[in-house]
């Protein structure tokens, strides 16, 4: 995981691949957004950001309430799908 997190573009590509796999398994957008929220929660608690972009996302995550964190997770999913 640390290799994936060391470069922001690598992280986005990794996340995009996982989103594509989830869609291929038949998960809908809400289920994918919920998984992204759970992953974001894990990363926020357990993983130190490896670059400036991840640090900014973590700082936003830390100040957000649950609803705002779900929005961040959903936006990350949307971002990687458009990349």
List the helices and strands and how they pair.
Layout: H1 2-5, H2 8-24, H3 29-46, H4 52-63, H5 66-82
InterPro entries: DUF3243 (IPR021637), Uncharacterised_YmfJ (IPR024702), YmfJ/YflH_sf (IPR038292)
Task: Provide structural commentary.
The chain has 83 residues and is an all-alpha fold. The mean pLDDT is 89. The chain has helices at residues 2-5, 8-24, 29-46, 52-63, 66-82. The protein is built from five helices and no strands. It has a single domain (4-82), classed as Cytochrome Bc1 Complex, Chain D, domain 2 (Orthogonal Bundle), CATH 1.10.760.20. Pfam families: DUF3243 (PF11588).
Summary of the model, kept short:
Pfam families: DUF3243. By secondary structure, this protein is mainly α. 82% of the residues lie in helices and 0% in strands.
Keywords:
Uncharacterised_YmfJ, 83 residues, YmfJ/YflH_sf, DUF3243, Cytochrome Bc1 Complex, Chain D, domain 2, single chain, 0% strand
CATH superfamily: Protein of unknown function DUF3243
| CATH architecture name | Orthogonal Bundle
Largest sheet: none
Intertermini distance: 21 Å
